[in-house]
Amino acid sequence: MPNFSLTDQVFEQAAAAFPTPFHLYDEAGLRRNARDLNRAFSWCKDFQEYFAVKALPNPAILRILKEEGCGVDCSSWTELMLAEACGFSGRDVMFSANAMPPEEFDYASRLGAYINLDDITHIDVLEKHGGVPETVCCRYNPGGDFKIGTAIMGNPGEAKYGFTYAQLQQGLKRLKALGAKKFGLHAFLSSNNTDNGYYPALAKILFTAGRDLAAETGLELAFINLSGGVGIPYLPDAEKTDIMAVGEGVRQAYEAVFPQGGVAIKTELGRWMTGPIGWLVTHAVHSKDTYRHYIGLDACAANLMRPAMYGAYHHIHVCGKRDWPCDRVYDVTGNLCENNDKFAIQRALPRIDMGDLVIIHDSGAHGHAMGYNYNGRLRSAEVLRQEDGSFRLIRRAETPQDYLATLDIDPAACALGLKK
After folding, report:
1. Beta-sheet pairing, 47-52 with 264-267
2. How far apart are CA 196 and CA 199, in angstroms?
3. Which domain CATH number covers 373?
4. 3-state class of 13 per DSSP?
5. How far, in Å, are 8, 125, 300 from residue 379 at the CA level?
């Protein structure tokens, strides 16, 4: 079933308070997800979630997660800045390198973050920019196909991330020579996987590799980072991940490889944490009948890129019409000069009238964060529904002044447009 944890009255109240489009996030749902995840891994004495900042880089969200005991996973200078501004530092920050400029290693080192190296050449970069710490993490790519049973869940060999096993053997020995005493191991082998067996299967690979590499190199295995990849049910008939079953599956794999314990577990569940607690709130502003029936919204791919970029499904409902028959078929579109600017293609929906409030589900991860300014379209606001039911603006909508601020242009030349 789609996520109907908020009533239509909530969306209507929010739309009365803030101009559409905007992303609405539910604080209570976010805290519930964080607590459920911590319960699922409560068997591990040293477990911590490192929220992937790229999923929803907003200080209000990061501070809530900090209150719930989470760290953050950062992959850029500005994400590190956000983390620092929200009070994260030291071992509450994971810096996942990926063709990074050297100065970003310097910044992560100054913060005292865990540094997660993506490539054997990063060892030389780290030595010169921040130095090799006592504990360092490396990203593993086992290559080939990743399977759960007979089903192929991913193709790590085609991914740009990670060391080969042979490179890990060589790289960890070099890190030891440079002063490292402990290491972590990280891998990401599948995206948006709702199979409860995904994390346990990944865990078995990482636990085994980490144990063997520790024996081969003489470094202590400090932690395993299971990364992200645990998915959410975007499609209405998709199964929801059972996070308690996932945690139990990882526990069984852990105890089989580490019967004495002693190895910490870390996760980076951006999508699972925030995807289902976000909605893009829009109005229907245009209706067009040609070879198809089109409904145009006041939002576009600049506000939610996933459908245009991946053909991704996001559930859509019309406020006040949840129980109406879905007896119309529409392409639901935005206003970009791109034919792929569509939130839904040939989607069965109730009759949509101009002015109807249209809600696009599961926009809380990789929604606003992937926004862009093509066609000069401006990114929307973000609104938090707080636990007491009140609303708080946590990011204002962009203005034309924001769009023009980085350009060499005389503001007087576009003064008429700026009066909007």
Report:
1. parallel
2. 7
3. 2.40.37.10
4. helix
5. 24, 36, 9
Do residue 71 and residue 218 come from a single domain? yes
CB half-sphere exposure, 268, CA atoms < 13 A: 25
What lies within 8 Å, CB to CB, of 230 at 6+ separation is: 193, 194, 198, 199, 241, 243, 246, 267, 269, 271, 272
Instruction: Domain of residue 214: give its range.
Output: 27-275
Assess whether 94 and 127 both reside in one domain: yes
The total domain count for the chain is 2
Nearest Cα neighbor of 225 from 311, 332, 115, 352 is: 115
Which DSSP state fits 240?
P
**What confidence score (pLDDT) does residue 141 get?**
92
pTM comes to 0.94
Q: In this predicted model, what pLDDT tens digit does every residue of 363-414 receive, in sequence order?
A: 999 999 999 999 999 999 999 999 999 999 999 999 999 998 898 887 677 7
Question: In the prediction, which pLDDT does 191 show?
Answer: 85
pLDDT tens for each residue of 237-247: 898 999 999 99
Rounded Cα distance between 321 and 24, Å, is 20
Residues 6+ apart with CB under 8 A from 320: 8, 356, 357
Residue 161 and residue 148 in contact, taking contact as beta carbons nearer than 8 Å: no
